[in-house]
Specification:
Layout: H1 4-27, E1 40-41, E2 47-49, E3 65-68, E4 72-80, E5 88-90, E6 96-99, E7 108-116, E8 122-130, E9 136-138, E10 140-143, E11 147-149, E12 155-159, H2 166-175, E13 176-181, E14 187-191, E15 196-201, E16 210-215, E17 221-223, E18 226-228, E19 234-238, E20 242-247, E21 252-257, E22 260-266, E23 279-282, E24 285-293, E25 306-314, E26 321-324, E27 342-344, H3 346-355, E28 361-365, H4 386-391
Parallel strand pairs: 1-8, 9-18, 11-19, 20-28, 26-27
Antiparallel strand pairs: 2-3, 3-6, 4-7, 5-6, 7-8, 10-12, 12-15, 13-16, 14-15, 16-19, 17-18, 20-21, 21-22, 23-28, 24-25, 25-26
Length: 415
């Protein structure tokens, strides 16, 4: 088949388009449009900044102002070295812009101002400056230490000084970030007290995942003359989802891994007057040998004891463990005879010790004891109902589940 006629037609059309383009250019009145091309550099006297002259550093407690003379400001873009944009307002006449948020301390800003003259010709003006370092800083230490943990491990943030002001807490909480891969369900910070926050998702962390906690607080103004300091990020990994359910009424502990039952072990828990706490506890650590004395927890007299204990897995700071109790093997699986710990045979305790890690979960049910403390005696975080947990967040308190702090500010369609 001969394609020559079709090729000629295509070439003819192409030449026609080029020819028309050339004709259109030739027919233009005076060349390019006056508003096309690179914006001119606005004269220094036309755009004035409130920053001091020369290399002097700017006081971050003072607002940044930009004023125009003989020009009109159309936009101002101010960004610090961390990538934070500085919020501001422009007057309706375009003659003045001022910042509406505090500048970051100890940072470097790049400010780009877009203008236009009386003829509508666009212009630009760029300024760079540094801010003075903060005299008072607040630092944050994330916990736990870097490593692998169970899916129940909360993230902690310890502040270098107490913060009671709600607005200051808002700034801090917005600056503390937690990410996980795979992504966890909705999560939130909870203010345990004036110096400590805990973070957890609605449900446990994803198994075999990665968690990163970091901060954007450095240089950010928290309150009067108090700024955020440098914060070291934290990276954790999670293992399998390991949960041990201790039923104090049946006297058995069942261990699950990723939702599947692994084994069921006969145990003994706290006897009347010393009943084991109910609720979900997070494993705090493992100790091959512990010397347990009743006097250390206020137990003396006829109930006093002084025992060498092996294969001890700690679940509370006050001394509750899952451990080997060879002296009570006859009661394990049938009666509760301990002073609050979960006791089992030496072989079973060694197996449990070797198959769990910090951050794994031990839940006690059907005990006559009180419930695990939410805070202060280990990690009772998972015993807090999710709605109540949200109330412990400055950002989420009063918002509906599934919403973010930014939602109220979003535009809504008219109804």
């Amino acid at each position: 088949m001969n394609h020559t006629p079709r090729l000629r037609a295509v070439l003819t059309c192409t030449l026609l388009v080029v020819s028309l383009g050339a004709s259109a250019t030739a027919c233009g009145e005076d060349g390019p449009h006056p508003l096309s091309g690179k914006p001119r550099e606005a004269a220094p006297g036309k755009i004035v900044f409130s920053t001091p002259a020369g290399a002097a550093k700017v006081d971050p407690n003072k607002p940044l102002e930009v004023t125009a003379k003989g020009e009109r400001i159309t936009d101002v873009n101010a960004v610090d070295k961390a990538g934070h944009y500085l919020a501001g307002e422009l007057t309706a006449d375009g003659l003045r812009w001022h910042s509406t948020a505090p500048l970051a301390a100890g940072s470097r800003y790049t400010v780009r101002v877009a203008t236009e003259n009386k003829k509508g010709k666009p212009g630009t003006r760029t300024l760079t400056f540094e801010t003075l370092p903060a005299k008072r800083t607040l630092t944050v230490e994330f916990g736990p230490d870097k490593g692998e943990y169970g899916v129940g491990q909360p993230i902690t943030a310890t502040l270098s000084q107490p913060i009671t002001n709600k607005k200051a807490r808002d700034v801090i909480e917005r600056s503390l970030k937690v990410r996980s891969n795979p992504p966890a369900e909705e999560g939130a910070w909870y203010w345990v007290d004036d110096e400590e926050l805990h973070y957890r998702p609605k449900e446990y962390w994803p198994a075999n995942g990665k968690i990163t906690a970091f901060s954007t607080l450095q240089g950010v103004k928290i309150s009067d003359k108090l700024y955020g300091g440098q914060v070291k990020p934290l990276q954790l990994t999670t293992g399998d989802r390991v949960e041990a359910i201790v039923d104090a009424s049946s006297h058995y502990m069942t261990l699950y891994r990723n939702g599947e039952e692994v084994t069921s072990i006969p145990v003994t828990t706290g006897k009347p007057g010393y009943s084991t706490r109910n609720g979900i506890k997070v494993i705090l650590g493992k100790e091959y040998f512990v010397r347990m004395r009743g006097t250390s927890v206020g137990i003396g007299g006829g109930e006093g004891y002084d025992l060498p204990v092996y294969w001890a897995t700690r679940v509370t700071w006050s001394g509750e463990y899952v451990h080997a109790a060879p002296w009570s093997v006859g009661s394990q699986g049938s009666a509760n005879v301990s002073h609050g710990c979960v006791g089992m045979s030496t072989g079973n305790a060694a197996w449990f010790f070797e198959n769990v890690q910090e951050g794994d979960l031990v839940q006690v049910i059907n005990s006559a004891g009180d419930y695990m403390e939410e805070f202060g005696n280990g990690f009772g975080d998972w015993n807090v109902d999710w709605e109540d947990w949200r109330k412990g967040s400055v950002l989420l308190a009063g918002t509906r589940e599934g919403t973010s702090p930014a939602d109220p500010a979003r535009l809504r369609p008219l109804v």
